[in-house]
Amino acid sequence: MVSSLGNFTLWLSLLFAIFQFVISHKKNFYSVLQFNKIAVNGLLFCSLVSFFSLMYCHIVSDFSVVNVFQNSHTTKPLLYKVSGVWGNHEGSMLLWILVLTIFNYFIFKLYNQKNIIFISKTLETQAIITIGFLLFTILTSNPFDRMITSHTNGLGFNPLLQDPALAIHPPLLYIGYVGFSAAFSFSVAAMSINIEEKIPWHSYMKPFVLAAWIFLSAGIAFGSIWAYYELGWGGWWFWDPVENASFMPWLLGTALVHSLITIEKRKSLQSWVLLLSILSFLLSVIGTFLVRSGILTSVHTFALDPTRGIYILTFVALLGGYSLILYGLKSKNFLNRYYFSFFSREGSILVNNIIMIVVCASVFLGTIYPLLVEIFSNNKISVGEPYFNSVTIPIMMPAILVMGMGPMLSWGKADVIGILTKSLPSILLAVVISCIFFWIYRSYNMLGLAGIVLAFWIMSNILLTTVRQLIVKNKEFNQEIIPKYSSGMIIAHLGVALLILGITGSSIWQKEKIIRMKVNDETSIHNYNIVFKEISEVTGPNYVALQGNFWVYNNKKNIITKLKPENRFYHVTNNSTTEASIHTNLARDLYVVLGNGDVNEGWIVRIYYNPLVVWIWIGAFAIFLGGLFSMKNNFQKLKRLSI
Amino acid sequence: MKKGILISPIILFFLILLVFFYLLIIDRNPSELPSMLINKKVPTFEAELLLEDKIFISPGEFRNETTLVNFFATWCKPCFDEHPYLKKLSDERGLKIIGINYKDDSKRAVKWLEKLGNPYSNVLLDPNARLGIDWGVYGLPETFIVNSDGVIKYRLVGPITKKNYDAFVLKVKEVEK
Fold it and tell me: Which residues pair with A32 in a beta bridge?
């Protein structure tokens, strides 16, 4: 019953979306507003009902629905029954559509007397996107398809996905991807309307881009946390095609967020921003569906179906063709002959943009290179970590260098000597802190040195600018002299510094030990002694597990913690996963994984000493928080604009 | 000049899409891997047999007829699913199939073959994965088609299933020609 309701509302959403598309052409303000109100609210309501219908089917384990039968099982805990809704291709499409209609609703809310044509055009483009995805879902991957035969239980689930971090990872990621659709639509609308309208389209775009960007950042962070805790390989980033698919839009989004600030202040880079916002969305869609079409294989792949790939690529070709041809024709209206100096705020943002694009292009090339090789020769190759690391890290370094200094520069002015004297204190501070750091850790490595110095370079700059700003505030100086900084920027940049600290620490100074251990065996890793005390069997909700008990002592023979890694076996799906056990503090993680083995031979145990990992998560959180602040400010600005 | 730059994104975009379309349309299996061993002679090795007290010597035994080499183990679920199709190949087509029992317990392997039937003309023991390394195996099951001159012509990673059975038979026929 409920599944029929879900199916019905899914079709109804399609009708509302078509209605929204048709109605947005009207020129009469009153009728457009009234009809669109019906269309947008109807669309939102129907997709909500449809989504929660599927969730209901998963919760009550309604195995008459193919999607539930294939992806669920009565033994699954409730949380994972809920997250199972988007843990498969069909359900995730429903979530994608829901997020799309929510963004649609927020765009609708921006209507006022002045922007009627602009917002109508945006809603029209959003309607096209929504129709495309609805048709895709209904025709090729309908989650409400019914079973012909009945079953008492489902086929199961992927135990690797049974993890809290992975339960919220896809929704966050989709908010990011789909959020860029708003930027795409605004961009198309800005190019379609008469230039004389003088709509500040970038102010409309900015809060949406920020929203997409921060959710994408959070989504990527949760994906990494999942990989770190669940995969048991001691790492958190593997340059898998799916990871790249989320990283590339993030890079473009980063460039977009920064160049939008430049437009706001200097009215330059307009045509560039239009292009970036189109590309961010296209790349989000292409990346996501490349992996699902089966062109690229990946550990995350859930659907291998070429017809779906052809549908979605055709759709992307239409969207991309339309928007990029429009760009080719109209963007010259947005070009300006205003060139600017390298040593200015906008100069540093331009450098940041170029570097982000270059990194994005390199990652893209690395991701599709195996495909190109396959077309032009008969070989199959795979491009892995060494390529990505050796290409992206050296390109990123100058970006980080500029990032530290950029916020201190003024808009438009080029005062090289002034800048040098201004940044001298931060250079000194960064050097001093780095020296203290290395004096404590006493471990030297060129790449490590560079990473640590860069991280402290950003931190010193942030610290000094904040102090300067406080002094200015107290003395109520003429505010023109020193540019104002938004709290969002300061927090987000601090987040990046912490992120670099964590990435450097965990990748350069990681220690790994793989040994075979029997009960009561002892081993050591970086000043810690680890004793394998016992092994026992434990039972979980839908698995049984072997649980090792490892006691960790420091070099003063004091016990620090007891680590209990598990080796879980899931009866239903007949496979096993490892559950790493991790002890975290601000300086390092101790990470133990229990592998295969038996009583006579002993068990294979992998032990990692991962310095500074926790700062990656803290840094990502700070970036998220900073973005949130900035987004709030920009929505308020937008509100003032419409009054 | 300026205009040229502005239309370059669309050109690049369609070139990339063209690549993707091409890959989607052509008949292509991403899990099919070429092997360095294709068109090479079978590796030279000696191995103990599971069911007889004899030594198997390669490449001496790969002569005169097309032979399949199948890596399997009792702990491997897909191998279990694949087994009926190997039986079919040996019963219906009279193919010579050499089984390599990879990293397995030989007592269990004997029981397994007793229960499911034995499609293999010889079952070789490979408890330490030495043969697996020689043949470049990285996952079970894997099947190689070796022609009558002892040259490896085809490699299938993963099981023979209902879906790919006919295609596999075609490959065997091609090699037999």
Answer: none
